[in-house]
Design goal:
The structure holds 4 protein chains of 4 kinds. By secondary structure, chain B is α/β, with parallel strands linked by helices. Chain B has helices at residues 45-52, 86-97, 104-109, 125-139, 155-170; strands spanning 7-16, 19-29, 34-38, 59-64, 71-74, 143-147, 174-178, 191-195. Chain B has a 5-stranded parallel sheet, sandwiched between helices. A 3-stranded antiparallel sheet of chain B has the order 2-1-4, covered by helices on one side. The model of chain B has no long low-confidence stretch (mean pLDDT 81). Chain D contains 2 helices and no strands. Chain D has one domain (2-49). The chains are: A mainly alpha, B alpha/beta, C mainly alpha, D mainly alpha.
């Protein structure tokens, strides 16, 4: 396992390996998202309770899944960086933060837009919404700590440790918010059991989820390539014998 | 030369902030000798001292003579709390280093006895530097790492500190100093120059 | 080792007592914060009564946040931390003594004065014991959780705002359990206190260790 | 025909929510992709110079 990591954690090898994957992902993700959008907007039927607003689900739910998945990805790659000190994993983690911010923002925005016609308000201090807001702030914190240490390797470890502490803390935050909500607010407004998901709705949902996943991989690979190239340029500029 | 070294540095290179600071430096430090690290501003003199004291990660070898587990260090930042008085500062470090003797003779040596109850923040730059050298004496380390030990000081203070280093060398210690100034104070045979470009 | 521990603890206490910016700052900030709440509610005593516990917790949070910035800043900036590292003084002692002294000078006064503030904010006196215990478990957690974050931001540009931004999301569970604990204390359920205790005991084990690691990296 | 399209755009009276929910996130994601791609192109140009 470790040997395998060592082989592909080398940035140069990673680039040659990633190039075809990136190109395929670029085409496939755009295709899948387009097909998913067509299914979501035109082909899927309106819900019998929520009517047309159910179409927001096809972008809201995959974005929420993605933001959780991306945090898990950041957490594990920064743990790998902290333990084995592969710089590649740090770059992977750092470059996924912006995408995570975008997806979390998407989930929050579409959630509140979905909430207005169904529950009557844009925002409820519900456990799930609150914990997502906290997740959004943790993402922003990661982004801030990246920017405030620009061009210094000190920030690398600060970033890694913050992702680590955040990873430990997120379940606790989620649990505490759940606890807080169940005591104070009877579950009257939100009832997820109301939606019965039929297969016609599952198709666009999964298409969008897969499309977002591929989009994430594509943007990530592009960003990593930019970062590696930037590093290479700085490295060559500062070589003593150059 | 089969002399026993205090410190042996072999092919030391260091990368910091994604830049190579220096590449493949080698030098030895023998007892009673001093190594001067020469170079321009920003060429990585301080980085070299931090690499030797094993704070930064480096590639290459730093061999230290057995029995030496501590380095004395005087840096740009003096490592003094502003609110501490001179007395409490010395008492604190005396206890840390297990220095048995009284520290009043050291204060006498540096002409600081008058300032014993004065908080550190009201001392001048040179006096602060002298205090950090007082800490160095209490430490009784064989190897001293000195980062610009005499820059920005007046002639009298410079002399005191140079004499102190000379004494340390004559007792069998070694020193690793970075300096801009060419020091003709020391015996030429005992000085090694290392150039970083 | 034990001698070193007491030496450092004494030094930290002394530095807190000598530097009036550090020791009295937190508690006076707490006082000022408490003053704001009655003023913003107008003359509505009913509202004040309901929010007394929440406002005390908010003030405790803010005074902790404000004092977090000075936790490692001085040591880092004047090079003492580097000196400790080169002289191979174990960082565990430094971190633990810092944490203890920070709590003693920012958490402990708040805990002891909290019943008075409860009366001050016209809260019901039956909550005093619950508030006392919840603060007793909560404030050390503020210090413990703030420690790694304060260490993380060493060497960053614009450190103060960054520190506050990073630490508030992590303090949320403590506030939630703390405030809920007081509310359910009188009805005889202590589950929030048990949870706070559980988080505290895990944090005491893990967080100092992480802080040591971060501090060592911050010197690089 | 036009009626049908208008009806579709109207989304049963919820057009505002649905169209903003689709429009803003998708523009965010795709503009980020475009920015990153242009950056990569610039980097490649710069790299060949060296």
């Amino acid at each position: 396992m470790l040997k395998y990591f060592h082989k592909y954690a080398n940035p140069g090898k990673f680039l040659t390996l990633a190039l075809p994957v990136r190109k395929i992902m670029g085409i496939v993700s755009i295709g899948v998202v387009t097909v998913g959008l067509i299914f979501a907007l035109f082909l899927s039927p309106p819900d019998y309770q929520q009517k047309e607003t159910v179409r927001i689900m096809y972008i809201h739910v995959p974005a929420a899944w993605m933001s959780l998945m991306i945090y898990a990805f950041i957490f594990f790659s920064s743990v790998v960086f902290l333990v084995w000190k592969f710089p590649l994993f740090l770059i992977l983690a750092k470059e996924s933060v912006t995408i995570g911010v975008i997806f979390t923002f998407t989930a929050l925005l579409t959630g509140s837009l979905w909430g207005k016609p169904t529950w009557g308000t844009y925002w409820v201090w519900d456990a799930r919404l609150t914990s997502f807001l906290v997740l959004f702030f943790i993402y922003l914190g990661l982004k801030l700590i990246m920017d405030s240490f620009s061009y210094s390797s000190k920030g690398d470890y600060a970033f890694g440790y913050l992702a680590l502490i955040g990873g430990f803390n997120l379940p606790i935050i989620k649990f505490s918010v759940d606890w807080w909500n169940t005591l104070h607010q009877p579950a009257s407004i939100l009832r997820t059991g109301g939606i019965s998901i039929s297969s016609e709705m599952l198709i666009p949902l999964f298409l969008m989820a897969i499309g977002f996943l591929f989009l994430f991989i594509y943007i990530l690979l592009v960003s990593v390539e930019i970062n590696l190239k930037k590093r290479k340029i700085i490295y060559y500029k500062n070589k003593p014998d150059n | 030369m089969s002399k026993e070294y205090l410190l042996k540095v072999k092919n030391l290179s260091c990368e910091r902030n994604y830049k190579i600071i220096f590449n493949k430096l080698s030098f030895n430090l023998y007892p009673r000798n001093i190594v001067f690290i020469d170079g321009n501003n920003g060429s990585g003199k301080t980085t070299l001292l931090l690499c030797v004291s094993n704070i930064l990660t480096y590639s290459g070898e730093v061999l230290i003579k057995k029995g030496i587990d501590n380095f004395g260090y005087v840096g740009h930042r003096n490592g003094l709390y502003d609110t501490q008085t001179v007395d409490s500062f010395l008492y604190f470090w005396k206890n840390i280093y297990n220095y048995k003797k009284s520290y009043h003779s050291i204060l006498e040596y540096f002409n600081l006895s008058r300032f014993i109850d004065v908080p550190v923040s009201s001392l001048s730059f040179g006096q602060k530097k002298k205090l950090s050298f007082a800490r160095l004496i209490m430490m009784k380390s064989k190897v001293w790492l000195l980062d610009e030990p005499i820059s920005g000081l007046d002639k009298k203070t410079k002399k005191i500190i140079l004499k102190l280093i000379q004494e340390h060398l004559s007792l069998g210690g070694g020193a690793l100093a970075t300096s801009h100034e060419r020091l003709s104070y020391f015996d030429k045979k005992k000085v090694t120059r290392v150039k970083i470009d | 080792m034990i001698k070193l521990f007491f030496l450092f603890l004494l030094k930290d206490f002394k530095s807190y007592l000598l530097d009036s910016n550090k020791s009295w700052f937190a508690i006076s900030f707490f006082l000022l914060c408490v003053l704001i709440f009655p003023l913003t509610y107008g003359s509505s005593v009913d509202l004040l009564k309901k929010t007394a516990i929440a406002s005390i917790w908010i003030c405790a949070l803010f005074s902790n946040l404000i004092s977090l910035e000075s936790l490692f800043k001085e040591d880092y900036q004047n090079g003492v931390l580097l000196q400790y590292r080169i002289n191979k003084i174990p960082f565990s002692i430094i971190v633990i003594t810092k944490c203890i002294s920070h709590w003693v000078f920012t958490g402990l006064p708040i805990i002891f004065f909290s019943p008075f503030f409860l009366i001050f904010l016209s809260g019901s006196s039956s909550d005093a014991l619950g508030l006392f215990f919840s603060l007793l478990f909560g404030t050390p957690l503020f210090s413990l959780l703030g420690m790694p974050i304060a260490a993380l931001t060493l060497g960053a540009t614009a450190r103060g705002p960054l520190l506050i931004f990073l630490s508030i999301p992590f303090f949320l569970p403590i506030i939630i359990f703390g405030v809920l604990g007081v509310n359910s204390f009188n009805s005889g359920s202590y589950s929030e206190y048990y949870l706070l205790c559980a988080i505290l005991s895990i944090s005491i084990v893990i967080l100092p260790y992480i802080t040591i690691k971060i501090l060592q990296e911050s010197l690089k | 025909m036009i009626d049908e399209i208008l009806n579709f755009i109207n989304m049963n009276g919820h057009s505002f929510y649905i169209w903003t929910a689709y429009f803003i996130p998708l523009t965010l994601i795709f503009s980020y992709i475009l920015i990153q791609r242009s950056k990569l192109k610039r980097m490649k140009k710069y790299e060949t110079k060296i």
